[in-house]
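Exercise 3.2. Students should predict the tertiary structure of the chain below and write it as structure tokens, then compare their answer with the key that follows.

Predict this chain's 3D structure.
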Amino acid sequence: MAGFTRRRFLSSLVAAPLVAVSATSAYATLVEPHDYEVTETDIFIRDLPDGFDGFRITQVSDIHHSRIVGIEEVRRVVELAQATRPDLIALTGDYTTAYRRYIEPCAEALGALSAPEGVWAVLGNHDHNTDPRLTALSLEKKQINVLNNANTQIKRGGDVLQLAGIDDWSWAGADWPRASYGMDVKKTSVLLSHQPIVFDLPEAKNFSLILSGHTHGGQVSLPILGALARFGKEMKYIRGLYQRDGTQLYVSRGTGTIGLPVRLGARPEIAVLKLRRKTE
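Answer key:
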């Protein structure tokens, strides 16, 4: 009996790590990629016009409609984003991953988004890899405004919020003079940029807030080690809010996946950013 108990005990020691790995793998594949988190973050901005105090921007990023991210998931993201009561919706790139056939269905689903101050978008690196022209045209057909190195003004009474979009940095598409043409650097401005690494560029200092994606929050973030992706050059800013010299950067974890349909420690995110007037 003692020997039998010992054998069972030793077997359990061997099996326990395998069970843990199997359970973690199942969670990372079957649960977390679909466990969308709606986050809410107050962004305090100095000299924010009174008319925009409390202004809600809902950011959706890195949808990656593909074989592993079905159109049902895109529609679910749209439904969750629409339920956040946004004043403005910002889409920060990577709508598909690699194949043109996914572009128009994704744009069709995103066309259900609406907000009083519009739905605004920029392209990401995967959009350039797939078909940037078709992506932009498909979005615009669904009344989604693509800010391709361009800017606009959101007006509330006599108050103005400047909104700009920069083309993907990694494809050398960023044209800063064109994107910021006519803007007043002394007034509040929001920049949409798929790549958060632009936070390190001198041109970024002219903006109050930058909204980015690209990183997926690391997609896999391990205990103690954290997100291994953060060691990549373009992944320096991996998730959440960063601040430097009056400019703030928010990096969304995005909603989709690439490579493998796996997320661990990096839940897919729909970010709600509430602009607040900063008082000294």
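Discussion points: Residues 36-278 form a domain with the Purple Acid Phosphatase; chain A, domain 2 fold (CATH 3.60.21.10). The longest helix spans residues 2-31.
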